[in-house]
Amino acid sequence: MTSPSLVLGIDGGGSSTRAVLADLSGQVRGRGAAGASNPFAVGRDGCEAAFAAAVDAAFMTAGMPRQPAAFAALGIAGLVGEREAKLVHDVASRLSLANELLVTHDLHVALEGGLAGGPGVVLIAGTGSSCYARGASGDGVITGGKGPLAGDSGSAYWVAHRAVRVACKQLDGRLPSGPLAQAVLKHLHLRDPSELVRKLYQPSLSARDLARLCPAIVDFASQGDGAAATIIDKAQEGLAEMVEAAARRVDLQTPAIILTGGLARADLFRPGLEAAISRRVPGTSFPERRLPPVGGAVLCALRGVDVHVDDPLVERLATGM
Q1: Which of 54, 33, 45, 30 is nearest to 94 (CA)?
Q2: Band of pLDDT at residue 273, cut at 50, 70 and 90
Q3: Which of 108, 224, 246, 250 is most buried per CB count within 10 Å?
């Protein structure tokens, strides 16, 4: 049985998955969360398990049995081509999430939620990093977002990786000693520096695990450690470079920029990031996002069933987030 009065929004990433169930007026009826659903990170089975758990929880909090919604929009990290999009579409169809489906990338729903429609830029900097700009014509481009080996400039992983490289030089005596070396050893639960190489090349050490070192590096930079400050400065410049390229390619002169992700929004990191972006793209604004990415997915789903999205509806959604 299908519910024609409900839509479903899903925001799936490399760390967590969120699902929100809403009615056609924008009233949130249920919310759910689960683990990672990025198909690169967890594969088809993990993606399906995360969707099922998050959606089941959303219907449970709504007090109703799971049933297909009228429309579901899924914004998923790791959609780099048609193959991944088809995988996610097939998983969502297998789970009977909705009569109609929109499968798109996480940046799309992040911008949709942040600005509630219209042109602008969204920059994500968390474990990974990526940027999406949409111009007045509706055309969009992505910069970055190619993973830890090919990019993720300025991300928490990028910061942690650079900190490890500096720490190794400090431990060797190639650089003056500093707090980074001890922070890396502590983060990896090592007492003896000779164990560092073995630990770093263990398959069990993921990019996400290493990225959890990043907050300590941000703290050291704020306290005046020169090595940490250099890493943070370069991270902010790398993120600003992605914004500049994306805005230029869709002809946005003075864009509104939504910052999302744990690193981009961190109190000790965000001011320097905004300054770096403003130097490269003068006249930009940094409004607070109106809705989180999962709210942007709900907006996409509502538009998919021809609901007119206006400010009162957005406010109702925001209240339920």
Answers
A1: 45
A2: very high
A3: 246
